[in-house]
Amino acid sequence: PRDSPTSELLNELKRRHTLLSKANAYTALIGPPCVGKRTQAEALRRTYGICRISGEDLLAAGKSDDAAISKLMELLERPVCRRGYVLEGFPQTAMQAKRLEEVLAKNDRPPLQEAIFMDAPDELLMERCKGKIVHEASGRIYHEQFKPPADGVKDDFTGEPLTQVPFAEAKFGDSCSKFRENVDLLKQYFSKTKVRTHIVDASAGGDVISGAIGESLNRPASE
To answer: What is residue 5's predicted lDDT score, i.e. its pLDDT?
Structure first.
């Protein structure tokens, strides 16, 4: 059963108080489609009190790299980003990473500090993609098999109807191929900068993945 509204409020106040002791965070979550980037980006947003910025939104409608990064800089002006950010699925290429580094420096913005690479077998990624359900107003994601809503067709928090996310197998295959074509060069680029990279197996459940990400981020840089 869900906590009472009073309990939820107290938990939220406790979470916000805890944030005051945490350092600012500047992180990117990178991986193929349906690997769990959105779920983990939302977890990092709440853990560190930072803003979540979607690479899909930045690159919507075939925007150029410069247009995407210009949009990112606009979003970083928001008060919610004052403690840092988590970039969900961006940068996707070494060229985007280079331009991001340049523009952040030019605008006296803190650089990207951590890049978390998530991956899982294509068969598992496809299985996750096929069962996605979303509450469009909030962006909450459910899954028919891995994270079903309590009611089956309604959002757990609002009771509003959920929407099945369409699955296009050809597009999925293209996106996975594109990720694997670019990921090694992206890792190589980060290895030449001060960005710490982390490799996380995203085959397990969400809580296990969150724990692995947290452990990796908390590990001393020398390890």
So the answer is: 59
